[in-house]
User: Fold this.
Amino acid sequence: MAENERKYDVVVFGASGVTGKYVVEELAVNHGDIKWAVAGRNPAKLKTILKEVGDEINKNLNAIEIIEADVSNENSISEMCKSTSVLVNCVGPYRFSGEKIADLCVKNKTHCVDVSGEPQFLETVQLKYFEEAKAQGVYIVGSCGFDSIPCDLGIETVRKTFDGDLNSVETFLIVNQPPDTTVNFATWQSAIHGLAHAHELKPLRKALKEKLFPKPLPTSNYKLKARPTLFKSKEVEGWCIPFIGSDRSVVLRSQMYNFQFKNERPVQVQTYMKAKSLVAAIATLVMGGIFMLMTKFALGRDLLEKFPEIFSLGVFSRTPPKREKESTGSFSVIFKANGWSEKLSSPTDKHTEKPNKTMIAVMKGPDPGYITTAICIVNSAIIILKEKDKRFKTHYWSCNRRNKFHHVPSAKSYLLASYVKFLEAAGARVVPLWVLKPRSYYEDIMSKINGVLFPGGGNILNSKGYGRTGQVIFEIATKMNDKGDFFPLWGTCLGFELLNYVAAEKLWMKACAAEDLATNIEFAQGFKNSRMFQDLEKPLEYKMKNQSVVIHYHQWCLTPQNYSLSGLDKFFKVLALNRDARNMTFVSVVEAYKYPFYGVSFHPEKVLFEWILSKTHQHIPHNLDAIRVSQYFANFFVNEARKSSHQFPNKKEEDIALIYNYNPVFTGQYGTNPNTQTYYFMQ
Assistant:
């Protein structure tokens, strides 16, 4: 069932539990604009919870629907998933039923969030369901409560505002609770079984890195050392111990993801917790040692589960916490960040001097166990539900060229379908960008999109259509990036020439013989020190160097000499060269030093999608290695554009703009057109 056809926006599973009750209250008080329901195995308890919450907030919740769903009945869980866009799973410990819920959510294309603080469960689900969830367009997001949104989001906020290269962050948690405040038994139970199975984490994490994060994190010359088990902190003016919650493991996976998929410099992290006193710190460490020892044996685990109050010194209890105590609790997290004021161009570049910049950030909130947790998980669900424009897609816009068209005489512009497919193959969606529009049009549309691809084709660079449009887009993109608003450009063939023409403000092309020319890629010195090729793996690099894997279709080239004379070598870094049929060397791959602007003189899209043979199209390579090379370029640029945060203000406006509103014509059937499919436009 499509997401917009679901009966509910959000369903709270496990709403009769302690956490579930606070989640229901958060939804009822602050999110009355969405359709939501409660679910669990006991409808009577759910009805009672709705009445209790309604009485507490002075609101009638009788209209909230109840769904009967039991983890022992897979069909009931599946039906529950089918009914909602986002499932809020509050049924813990998650090691017992969480994976089944995640599996059925993926199968039913339902987004799912939970409040798990169990690293083994979280990492198992990511390992098993990452690719399947991605293919289904589904988010399965764990640890969306106090474990571990404040820490993870706090570090990400620090990274974005640091203004330099961030090397490390230490976090210090301070919890302020009234006397006799207790924590839910399910959290205690999760800790028992988590430690009992801790030995299983090492092989799990090895598999996670091999499958999802094969690119090893770059090491820093300045390692963040863990502090002693017990130490007095100047940062929080008190005694601290290591924080053994899931925060650090969650943050480390975020760092691996950001480096693997977003090419961001990873941050070293250590997490600590302030004790109320030295005596309290020592007592916590002693009881923690006893706890860890007891979890290794079945008898010890049984005793811990039967007598949580005794073995936790009253912190954990089977009795639900009292609402009045939770409402007066609070927390603070101190983030101590160290790094450098200078920002290096690549996340793998290493600073040779000691960190010279420190930043302190503070996050504060209400009771962490329940009130903050409810706020975090509900808003996680709402973000997934409402920010659809940021899900699993990147926008690209291709300029259309003015010309006369034999097959569609009334058309005013066109776009080869291979460019659209090229971007879609890497996970993007495409919208055509029109030429000869006012500057305000481009400023507006570029504030809603994530990048621009300038395609190849037959046109004049200094024309008032394609050339002038390209210049305006280039200027706007430059200003955006100068203001810190990431916006990439890509040029293929004529688009490559356009980028160079606009950057140099003059044509520096030289006639060459590169029509229907299949070549390898002759890398320039230092090509690996680039954003485009820094992650290029050796086997593919070898294929690029030694096989004909790209196809050229141009009669004009930029020679290395002209690149130097024009000053273009100050703006663009030359990453690769090629030779034409007369053995003249020309520049074939570039990237801007300062901006995310990239250009290739060849056509990676033709290798993937153009199959029509003609007198001028005889040598396009379609072998597996050439396909992999073309896909590498598509993946790279799409990944660059994913870094842009732009989006349309609403779905309706986006739908109107998408390329799906137009149908490509099978132009290859006419025999005179070497392009398989073409989009024609009336503007």
